[in-house]
């Protein structure tokens, strides 16, 4: 009895040792098909780890889809290597501005990110980015510069579709677009009041997201057309919900924000509340989060209309209320929407996009300032 137990034990121990040594042998990078108790004299002592890894991964998940220089794509996992960038510091960075909100979201300024690192992260995901822009009435004149400079600076190297909502399709200019970038034209009616155009953006964008854009994009930006890009506006702006600080209010007390102060409006925010004042000329995020927010602004303005009130800064007032109670996951500095009307102060190291000077009275259907 004792003898047969001992034999079984010896057999188990031997089998265990065999598996253990076999595992170590393969781990060190040797091919199991060449297993031999003595090493061939001409075998290099440096194991070819890369090809062994590729073989092991191939056994686990099947053949690699692509193995270009600099990246490995295995299943849905992409590994980038060899991306060269400066080492990030824990001690140095921008000290003249705050680069984090009090809910711990990034507040993005030049010098708070490395474009090489950011691009490497987002290019792996290859997101489809929608830009919703309205050009109604005489505003079609702004399309050429917006699109031309957008091609130079906006999300270069990414897939971008400009959704142009217009009542004058024939006035949309022909622009050479980069690879993976296109224009989609959407018809909307003309308007007699500029207020109806800016507020109507929420309605028409909600409908278009429902009918079309939802199937074609991962991220969505809403932008004013009367603006030009002057410098990189890249993947550092991407997040679940991204707001941009309005250039006129980023250093003032919250009670000076031009929030809607009439409590009859759905956009009402009382004095003593508020984080920042955000512009409605540039904002973005995940498609579904943007849809929720765009539709919220639309529904709230419809409620206001029933009560014969229009928020003081139209959709911008509703947007500010939404952002106050549903904090953005990223906040962009006014670099991400400056204005050609204003001098550039020292804390704005780079103007990425800027609102153009325009003759309000001439360009708007009902004039106004
Ligand atoms: C500010 C905001 C804008 C919006 C508006 C609401 C900035 C830089 N912009 O812009 O986002 O909140 O106030 O009052 O702070 N549009 C047309 N046709 C028109 C009128 C407007 O296509 O007849 C579109 C166009 O895309 C334009 C956008 O609506 O860029 C905003 O209108 P605006 O530029 O006349 O408004 P503005 O400069 O007062």
UniProtKB/TrEMBL annotation:
An alpha-L-fucosyl-(1->2)-beta-D-galactosyl derivative binds at residues 246, 258, 316. Gene3D superfamilies: Spore Coat Polysaccharide Biosynthesis Protein SpsA, Chain A (3.90.550.10). Keywords: Glycosyltransferase, Manganese, Membrane, Metal-binding, Signal-anchor, Transferase, Transmembrane, Transmembrane helix. The chain crosses the membrane at residues 12-30. GO terms for molecular function: hexosyltransferase activity; metal ion binding. The active site is at 316 (nucleophile). It is found in: Membrane. It comes from the Eukaryota. It is a single-pass type II membrane protein. One of its GO terms (biological process) is carbohydrate metabolic process. It holds the Pfam family Glyco_transf_6. Its cofactor is Mn(2+). Mn(2+) binds at residues 224, 226. UDP-N-acetyl-alpha-D-galactosamine binds at residues 134-136, 139, 224-226. This is Globoside alpha-1,3-N-acetylgalactosaminyltransferase 1-like. It comes from Sparus aurata.
């Amino acid at each position: 009895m004792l003898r047969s137990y001992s034999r079984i034990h010896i057999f188990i121990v031997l089998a265990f040792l065999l598996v253990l040594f076999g595992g170590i042998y393969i781990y060190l990078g040797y091919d199991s098909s060449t297993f031999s108790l003595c090493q061939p004299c001409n075998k290099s002592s440096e194991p070819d780890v890369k090809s062994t890894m590729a073989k092991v991964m191939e056994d686990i998940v099947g053949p690699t889809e692509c193995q270009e220089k600099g990246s490995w794509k295995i299943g849905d996992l992409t590994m980038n290597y060899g991306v060269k960038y400066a080492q990030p510091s824990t001690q140095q960075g921008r000290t003249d501005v705050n680069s984090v909100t009090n809910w711990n979201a990034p507040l993005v300024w030049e010098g708070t990110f490395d474009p090489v690192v950011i691009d490497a992260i987002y290019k792996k995901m290859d997101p489809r980015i929608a830009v919703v822009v309205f050009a109604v009435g005489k505003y079609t004149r702004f399309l050429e510069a917006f699109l031309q400079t957008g091609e130079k600076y906006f999300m270069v190297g990414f897939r971008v579709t400009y959704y142009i909502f217009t009542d004058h399709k024939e006035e949309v200019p022909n622009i050479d677009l980069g690879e993976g970038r296109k224009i989609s034209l959407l018809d909307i009616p003309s308007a007699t009041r500029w207020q109806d155009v800016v507020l109507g953006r929420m309605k028409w964008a909600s409908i278009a997201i429902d009918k079309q854009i939802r199937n074609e994009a991962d991220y969505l930006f809403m932008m004013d057309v009367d603006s030009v890009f002057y410098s990189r506006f890249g993947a550092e702006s991407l997040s679940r919900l991204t707001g941009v600080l309005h250039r006129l209010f980023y250093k003032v007390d919250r009670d000076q924000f031009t929030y809607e102060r009439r409590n009859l409006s759905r956009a009402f925010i009382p004095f003593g509340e508020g984080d920042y004042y955000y512009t409605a000329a540039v904002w973005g995020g995940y498609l579904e989060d943007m849809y929720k927010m765009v539709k919220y602004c639309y529904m709230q303005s419809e409620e206001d209309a029933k009560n014969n009130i229009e928020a003081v800064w139209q959709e911008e007032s509703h947007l500010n209320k939404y952002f106050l109670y549903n904090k953005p996951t990223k906040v962009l500095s006014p670099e991400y929407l400056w204005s050609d009307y204003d001098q550039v102060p020292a804390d704005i190291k780079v103007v990425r996009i800027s609102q153009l000077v325009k003759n309000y009275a001439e360009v708007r259907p009902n004039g106004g300032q």
